[in-house]
TrEMBL record:
Domain of life: Bacteria
Annotated source species: Nitrincola tibetensis
MF GO annotations: metal ion binding
Database matches in PANTHER family: FOSFOMYCIN RESISTANCE PROTEIN FOSX, LYASE, PUTATIVE-RELATED-RELATED
The protein's name in its UniProt record: VOC family protein
NCBIfam families (UniProt xref): PRK11478.1 (NF008551)
Keywords assigned: Metal-binding
VOC domain sequence ranges: 4-127
Keyword Iron part of the UniProt annotation: no
Length: 127
């Protein structure tokens, strides 16, 4: 039986920029960091407050995302937050542009979207 999501993996175009975004701007903690010389690739393991993880990879010349956000495959990454307005203010203070807060038609919960340095859509969902 599935017990939950262990991690999500992200490939970035600029390792240092994305590492700074996920660790400094979003505040995720580094679990492990490895350079894989045979691949010319960094692998950064980040831990979320609930124990889930993000893997951040760099590869030489990765292809661009097919479209935004409607390509087949992963659509977006979503994080849960307790106070969406507070977190939106935090992002704006850190010069991250966000979309307006919206209301989920089915659950009545508030959510918003912003993007990482490579344009990966990220959602905040208020619990």
């Amino acid at each position: 039986m599935l017990l939950g999501i262990h991690h999500a993996a992200i490939i970035c175009s600029n390792y240092e920029v994305s590492k700074s975004f996920y660790t400094h701007t979003l505040g995720l903690k580094i679990l492990a960091e490895h350079y894989r010389a045979e691949r010319g690739s960094w692998k950064l393991d980040l831990v979320l407050p609930d124990g889930g993880q993000l893997e951040l990879f760099s590869f030489p010349n990765p292809p661009k995302r097919a479209s935004y956000p409607e390509a087949c495959g992963l659509r977006h990454l979503a994080f849960k937050v307790a106070d969406i307005e507070q977190y939106q203010g935090y992002l704006v203070k850190h010069e991250v542009k966000t979309e307006a807060i919206r209301i989920d038609d089915y659950t009545g919960k508030r959510f918003l979207f912003f993007s990482d340095p490579d344009g990966l859509p990220i959602e905040l969902y208020e619990i």
